[in-house]
Every structure is written in structure tokens, then in C-alpha cells.
Amino acid sequence: MELTPANLYDELLQLIGTTLETGRKQAIQAVYAHNLETYWRIGRHVVEFEQGGKAKADYGAGLILRLAKNLSLRHGRGFSLSNVKAMRQFYVAYPKSQTPSGLLSWSHVVELLKMDDPLERAFYEKQMVLERWGVRELKRQRESGLFLRLAASKDREGVLQLASQGQIVEQPTDLLREPYIFEFLKIPEAAALSEGELETRLCDHLQQFLLELGKGFTYVGRQYRVTINNTHYRVDLLFYHRILRCFVLIDLKINDVQHHDIGQMNLYLGYFAAEENVEGDNPPIGIILTRHKDELLVEYATYGMNSQLFVQKYQLYLPNREELRRELELTLAESKE
Which PANTHER family match (predicted)? Predict the structure, then answer.
């Protein structure tokens, strides 16, 4: 294309816009980092004062309340009772060498401080940075027990690695969660729902669905047509995973998965590998999402079959996090014996 003054001017506009956007992001991150450093230091001042012997006796349990009132009068907003408590807790929970990433806002940190388990807190801190969650996304993932669901299938070493690194996607199995949680659809557990209705609702709540699927998923379409010898088939939901560089095919089932459902997904995978993949694409992944799963049937039906075909459960309500936590504690305890 021939360069003209108009083209050069458009390039200048684009360059300035990119520079401005980058500068604003860096400024916001600098503010976040400065705020966290400041609040951590305030927390340290409070704890050191409390540990001062006579000072602790003189002020006792009312210290935080008194500080909140006086700091609010002197310095304005930002020093509510809950905020001052959080600053103190921030210092206690995070030794200086373990201060959270400067990419996180104070609101992120306040949510992290609600978690008593340091492993759980460390996981969500890492995952927020990896997937760039806002506070709302963090709250949703914590309520859905994401860490506990991911940790349930791991041994002690795997759990510790998950807490220290977050969920790193390097292979197809790293995509999996069980169960997947679709509470955002607000469908009663006993409601009669067709597969088509479930598919429609998931597409209507695509942002929340992508959050549940995890980092790297790009939506391609629904009811994607596959034609073999003039016979038409349709994949319920089609995604492309930009990290693993492959198609991800999802079929939805409201009843028990049957062996022919698995065979059909394997057919789709063969088709995509031969007909849809282009240079640089990796073999496709198939996930059948079902309310109920017969483990033995799945084992036999997938015998000798594509290793990138998975049958995973989903549920329409939030999991019992205490039960998941007990399973995690049992895993950690057994590995110490």
C-alpha cells in the first residue's frame, strides 16, 4: 500500500493512542503498588504499637476503633473501622518478602485477607495476576471453590505447586475442572431443562461461562456444522484455546453420558484434526459436560481412544466448600504420614 500523508497521520494517531494507554496502565499499577506499601506500613505501625507492653494495656481492644475515628477526622475517607482492621491484618498475613503483586488493588487484597488458609490465599493471588481478574471475578471464583476443585484431584506436591504458581495451562488436562459450576445461570437444581436450553443460557452468559472455563478460551460459535459424506452433525459449542493453540469442542448432556456420545465426540475430533486444523494448530480437545457420569462406562468407552477426549461433570449450584476443604485437608494429612 502506498504511504500517503493521511496514512502517516493515522499511524501517528495509533502510536500516540498506544503510548497513552500504556502510560495510564503503568500509572495505575504504580498507584496500586504505592497504596499497598503504605497500608502495609500502617499495619506494621499498629502491630508494633500493640506489642509495646504498657501501650497495649492502656488502649486494649479499643485501639483499632479509636484509630479509625481519629484517622478519619485527620485524613478523610479510607480509614473506616474495617479498613484499619484490614491494614493490621495485611501486615500480619504478609511478611515483607511475601507482599502481594503490585498489579493488585487494595480491594483485591481485602478479599484475599478474608481467606484464612494461606495455600488458598496464595493460589487466588497468583491466579488473579495470571487471568487479570477484577474483584467481582475473584469473589465468584472463591465462592465457587475453584482452588478446592482444582486441588481435589492432586497429591500434596500438586496442591503446593498449585498454591505457589496458580493454574498454569501447559497441557490439555490443565484445562479441566470437576465439577464445572454454572450457578450464574440461576437454574433451580430440580428444573427440567433441555440440552438446547442449557446451551442457549450458557451463550447468553458467555462472559461468566468463559470465566468458569478458565484462561485462554476464545469463543468460535455454537451448533458448529460438521459434514461427513453429506451427513450433517453439529458440535454444541466450539472454542479455540490460544495458549494450547487448538480447537476445544464441548458437547452438553443433561442425562447420563452413553458410549455413543463418546464415540460421536471422537468422530468430531478426527474431523477437526483432518479438516479444520491449519499449520501450527495442535490436535483438538473434546469435552463432554454432563450432570452425571458413570466412571466405569467412561473408562471402557474411551479405552484405546483419543487421549484428548474428556468427560467432566457440571452442576447448577455452588459446591459445598467445607466438604471440599475436608478432602483437601485429608490429602495433605495423608501425604505427611
Answer: NUCLEASE YHCG-RELATED (PTHR30547:SF5), UNCHARACTERIZED PROTEIN YHCG-RELATED (PTHR30547)
Phi, psi of 279 (to 5 degrees): -55, 130
CA distance 197 to 206: 14
CA angle centred on 276, ends 275 and 281, rounded to 5°: 120
Strands 231-241, 246-253: pairing kind: antiparallel
251: its cell numbers:
458437547
Pairing label, strands 231-241, 180-181: unpaired
207/314 same-domain check: yes
The tally of domains found in the chain comes to 3
Same domain assignment for residues 157 and 217 = no
Measure the CA dihedral 114/118/119/120, to 10°.
Answer: 0
* Position 310 in a domain: yes
Does residue 190 share a domain with residue 314?
yes
Domain-located, residue 1: no
Q: What is the pTM of this model?
A: 0.84
CB atoms within 10 A of CB 302: 18
pLDDT for residue 76: 87
* Domain limits for position 302: 180-318
Please list the rounded mean pLDDT of every run of 10 residues in the chain (337 residues). 72 90 87 90 91 64 90 92 94 81 88 93 93 94 94 89 92 94 90 91 97 96 95 97 97 94 96 96 97 93 90 94 88 69
